[in-house]
Design goal:
eight-stranded parallel barrel; about 40% helix; TIM Barrel; globular; about 260 residues; alpha/beta
């Protein structure tokens, strides 16, 4: 089955990942982002703050989808320092990110663990943003698509209805926080490969899964990246910490969606 047509036909999804940044003083920036989001009803806008800000942000900025940056695969238990998907939901989260390359790289998370987290999040009625991406060595050796395809094979949640609450974020590891961005043709090729895998795993439902691009997305390059076929949004790091730069990305998505 071939998926055709530009994916901005899917509802655009722009998500900010604050990583280990943000104290309560940053809620003012989140409120400013919320005001921007309220002007664009056709764009889904989310923020993933650190766990300490999750509930305060839910209360302060109802215009945004607020989510977690990670969750544990278990519902509860003796896992000091971890947060379960049920706890995220209880705090008001609507989604969680799983499998981010920083978790895979610095915390040793493999595909099986990422899949467990994704399935736990879905069981807690959260949406999931599942991250995949290759390293620079893997890209340069010509294995990028094979690496990402294998990550999807191992990490994608299975089960009835899984695709309906899932988004994929393609984040080439070498582009995250470096200012380096792949060629548009490389982004397009990878997003097509991801779509093919989603259709293979989920059948027709795989056509509705939004595929986001992440990795040094900023106000200057967002329009070009979001115009790429099969790119239905962005997972944004540093540029989401400042309302002005994040607003430019949201605006770029809206202009393409309206076109």
């Amino acid at each position: 089955m071939k998926f055709t047509g530009h994916t901005m036909a899917l509802r655009p999804y722009i998500v900010g990942n604050w990583k280990m940044n943000g104290t309560r003083a940053m809620l003012a920036e989140a409120r400013a982002i919320g005001r921007v989001a309220s002007r664009y009803p056709d764009i889904d806008v989310g923020l993933a703050p650190p766990f300490t800000l999750l509930h305060p942000m839910v209360e302060a900025v109802p215009e945004l989808e607020v989510g977690g940056q990670d969750c544990h695969a278990s519902v509860s238990g003796a896992f000091t320092g971890d947060i379960s998907a049920a706890m995220l939901a209880d705090a008001g989260a609507r989604f969680t990110i799983v499998g981010h390359s920083e978790r895979r790289q610095f915390h040793g998370e493999g595909n099986e663990e990422v899949r467990g987290k994704a399935e736990a999040a879905l069981a807690a009625d959260l949406s999931v943003i599942l991250c995949v991406g290759e390293t620079e060595v893997e890209r340069d050796s010509g294995h990028a698509e094979a690496v990402v395809s294998a990550q999807l094979d191992g990490s994608l949640p299975r089960g009835q209805g899984a695709a309906a609450k899932l988004a994929i974020a393609y984040e080439p590891v070498w582009a995250i926080g470096t200012g380096r961005v792949p060629q548009v043709s490389d982004v397009a090729a990878m997003h097509r490969a991801i779509r093919a895998k989603l259709l293979a795993v989920y059948g027709e439902a795989g056509a509705g899964v939004r595929i986001l691009y992440g990795g040094s997305v900023n106000a200057g390059n967002a329009a070009e990246l979001l115009a790429v076929d099969e790119v239905a949004g962005a997972l944004v790091g540093g540029a989401s910490l400042v309302a002005e730069s994040f607003a430019a990305i949201i605006n770029a998505a809206n202009m393409l969606h309206d076109a």
